[in-house]
Write a structure and sequence with these properties.
alpha/beta; 12 helices
């Protein structure tokens, strides 16, 4: 993960925030990639005792990307840092506004950049012009996952502590129709096994209401019967329901949301 440009800076700042007992706001996009990425960061940060909240913008009222509403919410809850998921590579004004409120921004994204980059604390994106990360096919959740891998490595944690989120990365990789080659192939293969094992209550609940057999899951079935339901949350109202579904340990609640 440290082959990715700015990864050192991002990890160092995240661990400083943790040591100071400060709060991070995770801002995800409202589609499957953005909400699974937010879920991955939220679950991992909680596992290392880092205080975090998440915010998913309203598709109709706020639109795509890092909204002013997200930054105002960060300020209102006392967050000192925002981490974006699957968005932010073009968030010039948002980063500037956050900085004016003394809030640092770490961007995790996979979309193509413009000529210049926002003035963020760190920008993790393998498709940056100056990034030499060897595999360019990561989705937004894939980049968030690599950030968790890097923090975990810095803490001398076991890689298993991060690989437990490969089910979420597999869903996002499928949703964004990323190439199933290189490390994506490894992550998706392992992720499908976790989905079958019922590792995540939210995923299991959504499989159940989709009438899908967890022992016979393929990327095709995820694409056509499972992922559209996650995308629908943001089209039919509050997209943060997707993150709540994917992060809750409460089986009754997860089935109700599903």
């Amino acid at each position: 993960p440290f082959l990715m440009q700015d990864m050192d800076k991002a990890v160092s700042h995240i661990l400083t925030v943790r040591d100071k007992k400060e709060l991070i706001l995770i801002v995800g996009d409202y589609d499957t990639d953005g909400t699974t990425a937010a879920a991955i960061l939220f679950l991992y940060f909680k596992s290392i005792d880092l205080d975090a909240e998440y915010y998913i913008p309203d598709r109709q009222k706020e639109g795509y990307g890092v909204s002013k509403g997200a930054i105002d919410f960060a300020k209102s809850i006392g967050a000192t840092c925002i981490i974006t998921c699957d968005c932010g590579i073009k968030a010039f004004e948002a980063v500037k506004y956050a900085k004016s409120l003394k809030i640092d921004t770490i961007i995790t994204d996979h979309h193509k950049q413009e000529e210049t980059l926002p003035n963020a604390l760190a920008i993790l994106n393998q498709n940056r012009h100056d990034c030499n990360y060897p595999f360019k096919g990561l989705c937004g959740a894939g980049v968030a996952f690599k950030l968790c891998c890097a923090v975990n490595q810095k803490l001398n944690g076991n890689i298993i502590d991060v690989m437990r989120y490969s089910d979420l990365v597999a869903i996002a990789t499928t949703a964004d129709v990323m190439p199933i080659i290189d490390e994506n192939r490894f992550i998706v293969k392992r992720g499908l096994k976790l989905i079958t094992a019922g590792h995540n209550p939210g995923i299991s609940s959504l499989l159940k209401v989709s009438h899908l057999d967890p022992n016979d899951i393929t990327v095709g079935k995820l694409s056509f019967w499972f992922i559209p339901k996650i995308n629908a949350a943001g089209r039919l109202g509050d997209a943060s329901r997707s993150v709540k579904l994917l992060t809750t340990k409460n089986k009754a609640l997860s089935f109700e949301i599903a």
